[in-house]
Amino acid sequence: MSTADAVEPATTTSAPAGTSDPAPPTRTVAERAAAPATLPAVTAGGLTWRGARREDAQAVLTILNELAAADNAPFRWSLPEIEERLAAPYRDLDRDFLLGSDDTGTLRAFADVHTPPADETVARAILQGGVHPDRRGEGIGRELLAWQIARGRQKLAASALADRQVPAWLAVYMEDDAPETLGHTFERAGFAARRYYSDLRRDLSEPIPPVSAPPSGGTLRLVRWTPELDEPTRLARNDAFRDHWGSQPQTRETWAEDRTAFMPAWTYVVVDDAPDVAALLASPDTDDETAAALRAGEPLVVAYQIASKYVEDFEVRGFTFGYSDNVGVRRAYRGRGLAPTVMAAGMRAMADDGMRYAVLDVDTENPSGAVGLYATLGYEKQGGSRMLAIDL
C-alpha cells in the first residue's frame, strides 16, 4: 500500500483552514479524553465480535482490500504489511482491534485503533476500519465508529502523554473520491477536515534532471542508502520534520516499521563528510540524539529520499511506479538544492528498473516549499486525500 508519508500527513495536524492555530490546552490529555469505563456494544447486523489474532492476517487483508476497492482508494494492502501490524509489540490485539464475522465465519467488519508510541508533543489516536460493502446500510458502521471513538479516548487517557497539556485528537483518513456516505458518517460523529494531501506523479519517460554532485566545497556526498546509514537517516528525518506542524519524532523501533516494500536501490542520501561539528553542537536546533552522534563521529546524513515499490497498487493505478515515502533535508542544510539531488537520483533508479512513473503524496500546506519543488520536477496532481479529526 502506498502510504502518504512523503511529507508525513499521518503525523501532521493543524487548525481548520482559514483559522489561526488553536490556543494551548489548559487541561491534560486524560481530562479532555474523558475515557469511558466501558466500550459501547456493536449489536447491529447480528455479527459475532472479537479481538484480533496474528493468524487473522489473511482475513484482515481480504476485508481491508475489499474496503479499499469499495471506497475508491488508489492502493491495496499486502499480506506482509498486515502481518507486521498484528505483530507490533505495542498493539493490544484483544482490545485495540474488533473483528465482526457472519454465521459462516467470514469477516464482514473490521476496526483498529492505534496510538503511535513515539508521540511527544501531540497525542493521537488513529482509527481505521469499515464494513464490507455487502453489509452496509444496516447501522453497523455507526456503531463500529462509536466503539472506535470510545476506545481511542481510552487509549489517549492511558498514553504516555496523558498527564501533559498537549494537543490531542482522534483521526481518520479518507480519499477525496470516497463515497459521500463515508464522509457523512464521519461528520455526524463529530469529525471535521483538518488537513489535505495531494497525490502526485511524474512521468519517468520525460527527461530526468541530471544527477550532479551536491554543492558545498566537496564535503557533501550523494550515496545510495546502506544499512549503516539507516540510523543517521532517521536522525535526519527527525530534524527535517521538526518544524512541520504536529510532526512527531521516529524512534528506532517505529522507524524500522513499514519496510515491507522498501527499495534500497531507489533510496539515496546526502552525507556531509566534514560537518562543522562545533557550529552544529552550538545550535539550539540540534537535538540531543544528533549531538551524541556528532560527538561519536558517526556519519551525518543531511538529505534523503526513501523509496518503496508497492506492487499491489500497480493494477489499481494502471501503471508501474516507484513511490517516495519520505523526502527531507536537515534545516541547517536547506537552500542548497539537496532535495532535487536525492529525488533526481531516485527517479533515475526507478526509471532504470522499468517504472513508468514516480509517485508521492504531499501535504498541501507543507511549510518547506515542497509543493513548488515537486512542480518544478515535473510532478502533477492525480488525486487527493484528507485527514479528519475530533479535537479534544
From TrEMBL:
<feature type="domain" description="N-acetyltransferase">
    <location>
        <begin position="220"/>
        <end position="392"/>
    </location>
</feature>
<protein>
    <submittedName>
        <fullName>GNAT family N-acetyltransferase</fullName>
    </submittedName>
</protein>
<dbReference type="Pfam" id="PF00583">
    <property type="entry name" value="Acetyltransf_1"/>
</dbReference>
<dbReference type="InterPro" id="IPR016181">
    <property type="entry name" value="Acyl_CoA_acyltransferase"/>
</dbReference>
<feature type="domain" description="N-acetyltransferase">
    <location>
        <begin position="47"/>
        <end position="209"/>
    </location>
</feature>
<feature type="region of interest" description="Disordered">
    <location>
        <begin position="1"/>
        <end position="28"/>
    </location>
</feature>
<feature type="compositionally biased region" description="Low complexity">
    <location>
        <begin position="9"/>
        <end position="28"/>
    </location>
</feature>
<dbReference type="InterPro" id="IPR000182">
    <property type="entry name" value="GNAT_dom"/>
</dbReference>
